[in-house]
Amino acid sequence: MAEFKPYTYFQCPCSDNSVSVREVGGANPAGQEETDEDERTFDPRAPRANYSLYPLEHLLYCEDCHQIRCPRCVLDEIVCWYCPNCLFEVPSSSVKSEGNRCTRSCFQCPICTAPLSVSSTEPPPEGLGAEYATVSGTYVLNCSYCLWSSKEIGIELDKPNSVYAQLAKIKNGGEPLLLPKERRKALEERREAGEDGSHIPGSKEEQELDAESHFYNLKSFYQEQLSDSSPAGALGLTGDYGYGSPGALSRIMGLYTSGALGDRKSKNKSGTMREAHDALEGLQITPLSASDAIARLCTSGWEGTASLSQRREQPHNPRFVSDLRPVANLLRTKRSKRCKTCRHILSKPESKVQKTHFRIRLVALNYIPNIAIRALQAPSAPSGLLAPLKPTQFLLTFSNPLFDSVRVNIATPAHTPGRFGSKVTILCPQFEVGANTDVWDEALGESGGKAGSEREKRRTKAEASEGQGQAEAGKIWERGRNWVSVVVEVVPASLRLDGPEFLKSEEQRRDAGPLREDEDVLEIPVFVRLEWEADVAGEEGGGLATGNKEKEVREKRELAYWCVLGVGRIAQD
Amino acid sequence: MSRKPAKGEYIETDTGNKVSRRSQIIGTTNIILGGKTVIQAEVIIRGDLLRTYPSSNPNEKQGTPVAVAIGRYCFFSRGCELRPPGKLYKGSFSHYPLKIADHVFVGPGSIIEAALIGSHVNIGSNVVVGKFAIIKDFVKILDGTVVPANMVIPSFSIVAGRPAQIVGEIAEGEIEGFDLREAYRAVGNS
Ligand SMILES: [Zn+2]
Ligand SMILES: [Zn+2]
Ligand SMILES: [Zn+2]
Ligand SMILES: [Zn+2]
C-alpha cells in the first residue's frame, strides 16, 4: 500500500450559503445563524463533499467579497487559444471558422496519442557529401512510441510541411478527397449535367459521401429548398411550427450558417419542402445489412478493430484500425478567472502564449492560513498505520500569510462522522497567530532568507516558554513569527464490527456491512473561524490610498469555513 | 565505519552545488552547473555524449562544447540519469545538447533525454522523458510517466501515462510549490 500522506482540504463556502463571511457589527443579523453554524457538523464522507473540498492551492480569494473562491464559483474567460504542440497562438476568428484543432502540422498518433513526426520515405543518403544531398520523394507520419506509420492507412505526403492541408485532400488509401471549394464546383457541374438528363443517380461513387461532403450536399440542398419557399418563413411569421416547416428549418440552419440564408433572393412562394432523394442532395442510405462489416471483422480480427478510446478521438466514428486517421492536436486555452458574485478578476495570465507571468493572481494561499499536519510521536507500528483505541497526538501548524495577526478558533465534533467514529480532542482551540512580515527578505536572494530562518529559530526558542512543547489543555505547543502549532489528540476507532452490541454506535447497528473503500482513513472535520483587523487604507486601490495614509482605517474581518484533515489510516485488527 | 569526518556525502563546489561522491558524472568539462544544484548518489550525467554534427549557426562560440547545461536550484534524486539526445540526421548520427533551466526536480530512477526542460518543472520517480522532448515552465510529470520522443509539453500541464498525456492543469496557487530553494537548504552534508 502506498504511504499515507496527511492532507488538509478546505471547503469552499459556495457549496453552502449559510456559511458566509460577515462584517462584525454589520447589518447582517448574526444571532440566528450563529447557533446554526455551531450546531451543524460537516461530513467529509458525504457524496456531495467530494465536490466542495479542495487543497488550498486550488482556491482563489476575492478581495471584494472577502471570500474563498473555488473552481465552481469562478467564471472562466478565454484569453487566447494555442496549439499545445507548436505553441502558436490561434486567433479566435480562425477557431470559429477552422475549428478547435491545429491546422499546421501537429498530429497525434491515432493508435496511442503520441506525437507524429514527418519523415521521408527515401533512405537517408550516405557517404561523402551526404549532408548536402537534397531529400526527395514522399513523406509519411511516424509515431516514435508505437511505431505506427501513416503508410499503414495508405497515406503518403508530397511535402513535409502544412500536413493538415495535405491530409484534408487525401482519403485513407491515398485517393484524393475533394476540398469544399472543389466539391461545390463538382456539384454544380453535375447538377447541370443532371438537368440534361444524363445524370445517373445511384452510381457507386456518389453513394458514399464522407462527412464533409455529406454536410455540404445537405446544406446546399436545403438552402435551395428554402429560397424556393417563403422568405417570410425565415422570420418565423408563417405560423407553422412543425420541424418540417421552412420557417423552423431556416431558424435552425441560421444558427449554424451565420445568417447567410437571410439575403437569399425571395421568390415569395410558400409551400412545403421535399426531402433529398439522392447522394447529390445529401441522401445517405444506411446499410441495413451489416454483412460488409462482419466480413471485415472476420478478416481483420480483434487487432484490426479500433478501441473505444481510439474511436472517441475520431470525428467519423470508425470501426476499424484501418479507418483511423491522424488526429490534429486539440487547441488549448489560457483563461482568466472572475468572481461569479462580483465579477472582479481573480486571476489573469499574460496573454502571450509562452509567457508564464500573471497580471493578477489572487490565490487563497495568500489570505487564509495553511494547516500542516504532523504526527507528534513516530508511529509505533512499522506500517505507519494508526493503532485503534490508542490515543495518538498530531501537531497542527497554522501559518498566517496576512500582515495582520489573526485570532483563530477551531472546533471539531467529539467523534468523527461515519460508522467508525474516532474520538477527537483539540487541546487548544483558541489562539492568536502572529502577522506575516515582509516576504521580501525571504524572496530576495537566499542570504536574507537564511538569516531570516535563523532569526526565527532563535525567536522560537525565546518564546518556547509559552508552549513548553507540552501537550497540555489550553496551551499551544509551539509558536513562531507567523505560525502556531497546536496538539490534537485522536483515539482511532476500532474497525471491528463483531464486538458486543452495547458497544456499537447507532450507525454500526444499522449497517454491519464489510469495510468499504477508504473507510479506514481517519478524516477529521474542523471548523475554522478567523478574526482579524485589516488595514483597509493600505489594501484598497494601492496608489490612491497612499495619499491619506495617516488616517488608518482598521476594519474587523471574519472568515469561517470547514476543513478536513486526513491524518492516517487505522490498522485493522 | 571509519570515514573521515571532513568527508561528507556531498562535495560542495564554489557555486554551492552539492554533488554526491557516489554519483557518476562523465565528461565534466562538457557539463555546466548553474549553482546550488543537488546531485544525489548514483545519478549519472553523460557529458561525454557530445554533438558531432557541425552546428548550422556559424556564430556559435567555438569554446568548449556543452553536452549538458543545468541552471540553478535543480535537484537530481538518487539513480536518475541525464543523457543528451541523439539522432540520425542527413546520414550521420549525432548527439545534441540537453538543456535544463532553474528549479527542476527529477525524481529517483528517472531517465531524461529531453532537448529542453524549462524552469519550475517537477518530474516524478521512474519517469522516462524521451529523446528531444521539450518541457516548458511549470510542468508536473507524475510517477512512472513515459514522455514519448519529440513531445512538447506546454506550461502549466500535469502529465501522466504511457505514452504521456496531459491530464490536468497547474492551479494558480501551486506555482510557489515548484520553488526548490527549501529543498536545497534541507540537504545536509553528513
Ligand atoms: Zn466555490
Ligand atoms: Zn500546432
Ligand atoms: Zn503511436
Ligand atoms: Zn467577488
TrEMBL record, chain A:
Superkingdom, taxonomy of origin: Eukaryota
Annotated stretches, region: Disordered: 25-44, 186-208, 442-472
Main subcellular location of this protein, as a coarse class: cytoplasm
Keywords: Acetylation, Coiled coil, Cytoplasm, Cytoskeleton, Isopeptide bond, Phosphoprotein, Ubl conjugation
Bias kind Basic and acidic residues: ranges: 186-206, 452-464
Short name of any one Pfam family annotated for the protein: Dynactin_p62
GO cellular component terms, A-Z: dynactin complex; stress fiber
Compartments, record wording: Cytoplasm, Cytoskeleton, Microtubule organizing center, Centrosome; Cytoplasm, Cytoskeleton, Stress fiber; Cytoplasm, Myofibril
Annotated family: Belongs to the dynactin subunit 4 family.
Subunit: Subunit of dynactin, a multiprotein complex part of a tripartite complex with dynein and a adapter, such as BICDL1, BICD2 or HOOK3. The dynactin complex is built around ACTR1A/ACTB filament and consists of an actin-related filament composed of a shoulder domain, a pointed end and a barbed end. Its length is defined by its flexible shoulder domain. The soulder is composed of 2 DCTN1 subunits, 4 DCTN2 and 2 DCTN3. The 4 DCNT2 (via N-terminus) bind the ACTR1A filament and act as molecular rulers to determine the length. The pointed end is important for binding dynein-dynactin cargo adapters.
Protein name: Dynactin subunit 4
Lineage: Eukaryota, Fungi, Dikarya, Ascomycota, Pezizomycotina
TrEMBL record, chain B:
Annotated keywords: Cytoplasm, Cytoskeleton
InterPro entries for the chain: DCTN5, Trimer_LpxA-like_sf
CDD domains: LbH_Dynactin_5 (cd03359)
Protein name as catalogued: Dynactin subunit 5
Top-rank taxon: Eukaryota
Cellular component annotations (GO), alphabetically ordered: dynactin complex
Protein localization: Cytoplasm, Cytoskeleton
Family: Belongs to the dynactin subunits 5/6 family. Dynactin subunit 5 subfamily.
Pfam families: DCTN5 (PF21711)
Keyword Coiled coil part of the UniProt annotation: no
